[in-house]
Amino acid sequence: MESAGQPVANGELRVVQHSAARTRVLDAALALFAERGVSGTSLQMIADAVGITKAAVYHQFRTKEQIVLAVTERELGRLGPALEEAEAHGDGSQARDALLVHVIDMAVRDRRLVRTLQFDPVVVRLLAEHEPFQRFMDRLYRVLLREGEDGALEGAMLSGAISSGVMHPLVGDIDDDTLRTKLTNMTRRLLGLPVKPVAGTG
Amino acid sequence: MESAGQPVANGELRVVQHSAARTRVLDAALALFAERGVSGTSLQMIADAVGITKAAVYHQFRTKEQIVLAVTERELGRLGPALEEAEAHGDGSQARDALLVHVIDMAVRDRRLVRTLQFDPVVVRLLAEHEPFQRFMDRLYRVLLREGEDGALEGAMLSGAISSGVMHPLVGDIDDDTLRTKLTNMTRRLLGLPVKPVAGTG
DNA sequence: GTCTATATTATGATAGAC
DNA sequence: GTCTATCATAATATAGAC
Lengths: 202, 202
What we know:
The structure is a homodimer.
Chain A: H1 20-36, H2 43-50, H3 54-60, H4 64-77, H5 80-88, H6 93-109, H7 111-119, H8 121-129, H9 131-144, H10 151-167, H11 176-191
Helix pairs in contact in A: 1-2, 1-4, 1-7, 5-6, 5-9, 6-7, 6-11, 7-10, 8-9, 10-11
Chain A binds a DNA duplex through helix 3.
């Protein structure tokens, strides 16, 4: 299992089952990254949050960048199954819609990680530099973006609207269920789709 | 002119005319903040970008936080006149619309600063902690947000859609004029407003 | 898996000369 | 307004014991 310590493989996003110790580090790191940004978070802070020393953290991850990489891969990877399902259903509007609901669901449930994954400069650079991330994002956009000249802009605005819709100070006191419903409706409005109740998975 | 080195005054956002040397520092800092984030930018990097030493930077600003403060105040302050004009025209939809056009215009023209002002953790903290910023944002939202229970969410999504619409990798190759027009149209669609041509200022 | 201890470099910040 | 020189601290990272 030494591959878990390596950079992201050249192929797909790996789904790694981390050890309990590694998981504790990643959880603490993610929380700190969301609050203070990746560059604003030191290994000392992560170690303190876990309740261990820096050296123990370095035993789990060779560099800070490896931690960022692992966090990003783990969280982004959670969209993998939904993406594969959508791809299996062809490129119709139904597949796109189902994936969109899933993305909104994940964004609402884990609001704090949105800022890190979408906007942190360090993560953005990682996503741009590592091929597996690029490929994964390409696949995501291929399903989510609509055909036509405005597809890219639409997708960009959509992703920002959802992100900001879950993390903006203005929406801090809206409960998850309400937020999910309203986000979905407004997303449909932005896309010019008919507004309908949120579909269940069954 | 010693007030320029002080924290933001308790009253309004100050409009400070910085010296040439200070302006060079602020310009370099803003560019670096946009690229690497505030925490990822050191005073050494800023000094190198300007072509001076750290000590010379410290002659202009007492701390790094003062630089962040000055950059934020300067850029946010550019919206001041448009905001005041909108407030003078009452709280009708016409005033909101005019301000919205202005905000989009500024976002498109200076795409790189959007990430810093809207999403950088350090700037977000500053905005939340300093009263003048809070007051300014309150005024902005009072004009931009619509009445009703969904006003806050609408505003949050709107701000994210515009931000992401100008800074997302997907839109990097769209020219300013095209982007401004399409952003305005999609913004109207999100708000459920009739889509019309962008109005001039005269 | 965790610790103590340490090396190295970078960081924010200051003093004082020109 | 800028420089050289310096300081104290914090950063990333490693070695080796338990």
